[in-house]
Amino acid sequence: MTKDQFESISLKKYAEESYLNYAMYVILDRALPNVGDGLKPVQRRILYAMSELGLDAGAKYKKSARTVGDVIGKFHPHGDSAAYEAMVLMAQNFSFKYPLVDGQGNWGSQDDPKSFAAMRYTESKLTAFANLLISELKSGTVDWQPNFDGSLLEPVIFPSKIPMILLNGTSGIAVGMATDIASHNINEVIDATIKLIDKPKTDLKDILKIINGPDFSNHASIIANSEELYEMYATGRGGFKIQAHWTQEQNQIIINALPYQASGSKILEQIADQMVNKKLPMVVDLSDEGDHKEPVRLVITLKSNRVNASDLMNHLFASTDLQKSYRMNMNLISLKGGPKVFSLVDLLKEWLVFRKETVKRKLEHRLDQVNDRLHILEGLLTIFIDIDKVIKIIRNSEEPKKDLIKNFKLSDIQANAILEIKLRQIAKLEQIKLEKEKNELVSEQDEIEKVLKSKSRLKTLIKNELLEIKDNFGDERKSPIISESEAKVFSEEETIVTEPITVVLSKAGWIRSAKGHEIDPSSLSYKGDDSLQDFARGKSNQLAVFLDSNGKAYSIPSHSLPSARGMGEPITGRLNADSGVKFISSSIGADVDKFLIMNSGGYGYIAEYKNMISNKKSGRAFMRLPENAEMLKAIPLRNDHTHIAAVSNIGKLLIFEISELPILGKGKGNKIINIPKDKLAAGEEFMAHAQLLAIDSSLRIEVGKRFVTLKPKDWSEYILTRAKRGKKVGKLINIERLVEELKTSKEDH
To answer: In this structure, are 682 and 743 located in the same domain?
Structure first.
């Protein structure tokens, strides 16, 4: 081969042309559906091959391998597995809202869509719904093209009677572009299409009053507000979320509808992982109870009926595939032959253009058939004028066709029809039948011509077809639409089952937690010579606060404390406390709860619980202590508390109104009872204890095993202003504790 026989082309040009050719092939012949019938080429070829095999809805099932063989052998020269998978998708009611293939055998499950049996085991035929695509195929409605080897013809597009692309949706990835279209409800799509037929200028706002949004084959919820839906359908691009449907039965959550393409087994794995990581302590069991009758039934068993199921599901929506996001990209092959992103209104209008042209072609095709038949009938009826002459010509003429044309002024087609009739067809009864047929065809001819000449009649015909489809295949919306999701991942505190607990602190600094408020902390077993230091009652989802002898505050999640069935564990293992400190107080409460904070130096203040909490293991400086003073136990403040009672070690009692003590976030506080500095420094005098009192409470003063009870009328004489020295209580010294006794009689006041 000589040099002149080669064609030179730059690498850049060759690459550009090759890439463009490949891109257009993928876009037009593989990945994107056509706006007319909503099908990709492989789907169209599968359905056409099945129709050619006679596998309509009323036929018997045939092996799927037979269909796949015809598809790849005649129309789609690609892998058999790819063709079969495309066929499977059209048969799965969880993939296609309105399946086009009726499958018999194992066609996969929502949990594992690709678990379908091999094509040699499954059988299939077309559904009745698929007839909406192919019923008019042989009626002159569409163009035909040669197959890949030119041996056969295949339809370029199906004459779809309905906007199929919106009903089943689709997804596909082409070169440099993709398509993702959700399924919709057939009733809504038909009503919207009819609305545009009647009023072509209807805007999107009015269409969205009819088409509420996507609709899937189960009761999973669509999450999108009206603004998001409008933007999505106006631009052809956007997104939404789908949320599983669930109900509660006693202490069980039943999930019976999953998001589109979500796997139940994967979801259970995701929940189980959280259970292993102790993020879902309120869940005790998981199970998949799905069967043939009820394919989706995931059961979550809760620890108790007190668990808030809604909060748990909102957490699972945020952390598992029980809620999934989906994008919308209405990218289709337009009637002009190229890709285009359609708005909802433009898509429906484009399909109506397609449908009007299809119906016109069908009517024109039928009109041609009617005219051809009328032409033959006119010839047949002509011979009945002189049937004997016709018989004579046929019996005696060497060229009966020419003689018939000449004598009766017939066309070639008419003469051939006459020569092909049987003797019984020249009976009088047959003449009557032919005249009846002619009259019917003339009437049909007239009707067709009227429709073709009138836009309004054409619109009415299309409307009536759509209404008939709605009557035959219509269904109500299944997927509810909610404007927003309350999906939210649990905080650590929210993962805790809320139950009453008692937090116990020992003198040696050991901590533990007991269920309930009925337990007596002093009755618990303690290690060696250890004993009860303090306790607090609250809920398992609250933080426990511990105060040390240096005035620092530390926080530990109460649910994480060891069980009171054992001895507990040293608090120092949980915290980075200063060396040598002792833990004085344990408290638990809500953020707004108030506590009396005080020290032996006679100072104190009221603190809100939220200000006592520390996020650091090393704690936070909470109370500034006078020299030689130590922290005392924090006392919870009730709404009915009106007074503070403080007593020194030498037996002086001071009572004053709570309002005299400020509410602070931290600091030294104000003087509660006057303790001389020199005596405090020498350890001779200090504030031994303090208590909060209601106006009708008695005050119990304990000294060792002895005690004195002051009724309201008795303790009222000790009421002075804050920061006084107080009054001596008899001869009592070394007072250990003050206790508020709530039960009093009217005589005590």
So the answer is: yes
Separation CA 31–CA 40 (nearest Å): 7
Which of 48, 54, 43, 130 has its CA nearest to residue 84?
43
Domain count, the chain: 4
Segment 229-272, tens digit of pLDDT: 999 999 999 999 999 999 999 899 999 999 998 999 999 999 99
Contact 185, 115 (CB under 8 A): no
End residue of a domain, out of 472, 494, 520: 472
Can you tell me the distance from the alpha carbon of 466 to that of 54, in angstroms, rounded to the nearest whole number?
26
DSSP 34: B
CA neighbor of 549 nearest in space, from 483, 493, 505: 505
Q: Is the pLDDT of residue 748 over 50?
A: no
| Whether 315 and 380 share a structural domain | no
Task: Specify whether 450 is located in the same domain as 402.
Answer: yes
Instruction: Decide: helix, strand or coil at residue 95.
Output: coil
Total residues found in the chain within this entry? 749
Helix (H/G/I), strand (E/B), else coil: 361: helix
Which residues are identified as catalytic? 121
Pair (631, 743) in one structural domain:
yes
Domain shared by 307 and 359, yes or no: no
Q: Could you tell me which residues come within 8 angstroms of residue 306 by beta carbon, excluding any fewer than 6 positions away?
A: 497, 498, 499
Same domain, residue pair 311 and 363: no
Name the residue range of residue 400's domain. Answer: 355-472
Task: Reply yes or no on whether the pLDDT at 192 is more than 60.
Answer: yes
Q: How far apart are CA 146 and CA 171, in angstroms?
A: 27
- pLDDT tier, 637 (very low <50, low <70, confident <90, very high otherwise): very high
> Phi and psi at residue 38, in whole multiples of 5°?
70, 20
- In three state form, how does the secondary structure of 96-132 look? CCCCCEEEECCCCCCCCCCCCCCCCCCEEEECCCCHH
- Give the CATH number for residue 134: 3.90.199.10
* Stretch 288-308: mean pLDDT: 88
Which uninterrupted H or E stretch holds 189?
Answer: helix 186-198
